[in-house]
From TrEMBL:
Domain annotation Ig-like: ranges: 38-113, 125-236
Protein name in UniProt: Uncharacterized protein LOC113097014
Pfam hit, one: V-set
Any one Gene Ontology molecular-function term assigned to this protein's record: MHC class II protein binding
GO cellular component: external side of plasma membrane; membrane raft
One biological process term in Gene Ontology: T cell activation
């Protein structure tokens, strides 16, 4: 009889940039876009790169889907009555937005805007928050284990092709073993499948000699590792 305990260890978030000039149909102008990657369950900080001193001019808005109305999270540096996320949100002294215990539903487009005397100052500072989430199946007969790793992003949740989105942003997902070797289907012990461009699954059989096994799912953006989640399986 085997008992398996799965533990999860997560790296800190990493930020990358896309410098663009864009006027959106949703009423905001973007001069620079940040991409922040985080694994679910962790805390994250979203930068406000256009902040004025004191944060009293700062407004944070959020779009979950491209077709949804923006939700105001902070206005005049003060938290608004945003729904169920209210207690998980806070501002730092530099006007960055903190989100505690990130969930996959927190992914989306966040934008920081400055108002002085009811007039907007400059362009919006936009941040795409991407959330990496790993789920595991029940251990089946023969100690077969399946781990699914999915990246939740603004466009992938908005009816836009996830494949088109991550190809344009050069985002890819991968699995590695505890030695840091990237896993492929060339190893008969592992089955790597990608039913969609924003999800990658690992199926393997736990062997009797596997006292401890680790597998890590990671996400790359423009050839740089942004975040990863390590799953440890212990047999006792």
């Amino acid at each position: 009889m085997f008992a398996l305990l799965t533990e999860e260890r997560v790296t800190t978030s990493v930020m990358s940039k896309s410098c663009v000039t864009q006027v959106s149909a949703y009423g905001y102008s973007l001069s620079e876009v940040d991409h922040v990657f985080i694994s679910s369950g962790k805390d994250v900080r979203l930068p406000c790169n256009n902040a004025l001193p004191g944060c009293k001019s700062t407004t944070w808005n959020y779009n979950r889907f491209s077709y949804s109305s923006a939700v105001e999270l902070f206005a005049g540096g003060r938290k608004t009555t945003d729904t169920e996320r209210h207690e998980r949100l806070s501002l730092e002294s530099d006007c960055s937005l903190n989100i505690k215990s990130v969930t996959k539903e927190d992914c989306g487009l966040y934008f920081c805007r400055q108002y002085v005397n009811d007039q907007q100052q400059g362009t919006d500072a936009a941040v795409y928050l991407h959330v990496l989430h790993v789920s595991s199946s029940e251990i089946s007969a023969g100690l077969s284990l399946t781990l699914s790793c999915q990246l939740y992003s603004y466009s992938s949740s908005a009816g836009v092709s996830c494949g088109d989105w991550i190809r344009s942003e050069r985002i890819d997902l991968f699995w590695v073993n505890q030695a840091g070797d990237k896993l492929t289907n060339s190893d008969s012990r592992y089955q790597i499948s990608a039913p969609g461009h924003c999800i990658i699954s690992l199926k393997t059989t736990i062997l009797n000699e596997d006292e401890i096994r680790e597998w890590r799912c990671g996400g790359n953006h423009r050839d740089q590792v942004q975040t990863s989640t390590t799953n440890t399986v212990k047999i006792s």
